[in-house]
Amino acid sequence: MTDAADWRALNFDPGAFAPELFTLCRQVPYLDQLLCQLDDLHDTLLGAYRTLRPHHRELATQGYFDLRLPEAGVTLRSARSLVLEDNAEFFGVQGRPDLILAGSRVGFGQPLCAVVLPELRAVVTVKGPRWNVDAAAATRAVALFEAAGIDWAAPPDATLAPAIVTGDRNYAHHAWNQLGALATVLRQQPNITVFATHQPLGPLAELFPEYPGLQVSTLPARALPGIDLHRFQPFAAGGKVVLAEVRARVVGLATQRACIATLQFCAEAAARGRKLIWITLRLRDKTPANLADAITGLAEALLQRGFGIVLDGFARPDDFDSNSDYDNAECRRTIAREQAAMQGICAMLRERLGGGAMQHVLPQAGGKLLDSIFLLQHCVAYFAHHGTLQHRAGYFTRLPGLIHANRFILSTDRAATLHDVVPDHGPAEYIAPDLIDDIGPPGGPENLYRFSNIPALVAAFADLLARNGIA
């Protein structure tokens, strides 16, 4: 039963007729209505539900969840669970050994997005296969249940403890999709067990110090399938919002942890009356080919106006040195490249403005993530790449910012990753498309690009500052 090569992987599309899937629906009771319900629920995460998927709320408080199929008048109740290395979760259905429900897609709030049919050797996804559960994951889950001697369709024993699995090497997903969910659970279940694979924004025990009953076990992602299913009912709690509470907790910890050099730079800038501008540098993936020239031109104009500059790039997660799951060698190569680029930018600024100007510039590539977040609290605006770098400012401040990206992103993703995620977001804007020229074939999110007119870019940022009362 556990050879993935023998399994079928299908996708449910409510607008298309698929004969093979139609046959499965005739063989499995209520499968058609179950798939329709999962398709509807996938994107339904509004109001209070944005902080925590309803089925995760039920799992935390009662150890199981109910999935209602209104048209059939049937309620499916979850049974035993397990979680794989990538946080994909699998839930048996009480009394239905022919069904296993699966959840994945952290960026969507960990929805239920697939149905595993062990007896028919098939897995059916909703909303497409990308970042979804595949046949290999489905067969692995079945094998793990069987190896542990777990009947996945049996009701969970009352002695089983609900346990949250959390952690992502991407701090933005951790803040957006996980920490708000955890905060919501803790208000209802303050003594819950948590298995944490990554803690990039600081130890959970320090982020939630008022919950002494919070039991955090740190383990590598590869160890998640080894969680004792005879003691725990694991699930990966997810949501789709950056809570103001989470921002306050992270900023509070960043303030406690700020290093001496960072504190000194901020204090000296304040003493000189220099407001700080945060500017990001990234050398690969969705980045301008003439970024160094643009940053130099923008920083030169801002320094001449009396601002200070924080040049920021890759920042080391809080658990970077202790967590082998990060690709530390590649990260250090990225840091070295960014530091070299920043040295070149600083050399050009020194040549144009003199050595004295450099006391107002802080190159920060390779610094600690919490230090970067602390620095942002002392800035008044930012100029950032679309994506993870912008999330640092957009998630943890309410500053005005100008975001740049290639034309594909500008046409399809205008601020969605901020405005739909942060209820109390700052006045961030995307750059005007006429300031961008794509490089190479158009039409992809990874395409490189270049700034078409750096003086106009500098003027656009000056206009952003003026409209936000920053002088």
Number of strand elements: 19
Cα radius of gyration in angstroms:
25 Å
Overall pLDDT confidence = 93
Structural class: alpha/beta
Count of structural domains = 2
**Parts with pLDDT < 50 across at least 5 consecutive residues:** none
Main sheet strand line-up: 1-7-6-5-4-3-2
| Count of alpha and pi helical runs | 15
Instruction: Assign a percent range to the helix content.
Output: 25-40%
- End-to-end separation in angstroms reads 68 Å
| Global shape | elongated
**Major sheet:** 7 strands, mixed
Our estimate of the beta-strand percent is 15-25%
Characteristic terms for this protein:
6-stranded parallel β-sheet; 7-stranded mixed β-sheet; Rossmann fold; alpha/beta; 2 domains
Briefly characterize the structure.
The chain has 471 residues and is α/β, with parallel strands linked by helices.
Describe this structure in words.
By secondary structure, the chain is an alpha/beta fold. It has two domains: 4-240, no CATH class; 245-467, Rossmann fold (3-Layer(aba) Sandwich), CATH 3.40.50.2000. 37% of the residues lie in helices and 20% in strands. It has 15 helices and 19 strands. The chain has helices at residues 19-27, 31-42, 54-62, 135-147, 171-188, 204-207, 244-257, 260-271, 291-304, 328-353, 369-376, 388-396, 407-412, 416-419, 454-467; strands at residues 8-12, 66-69, 74-83, 89-93, 96-103, 112-117, 122-126, 161-166, 193-196, 215-218, 232-235, 276-280, 308-312, 361-363, 379-385, 401-404, 428-430, 436-438, 449-451. The strands form four sheets. It has a seven-stranded mixed sheet. A six-stranded parallel sheet has the order 14-13-12-15-16-17, with helices on both faces. β13, α10 and β14 (361-363) form a beta-alpha-beta unit. α7 crosses α11. The chain is elongated. The model has no long low-confidence stretch (mean pLDDT 93).
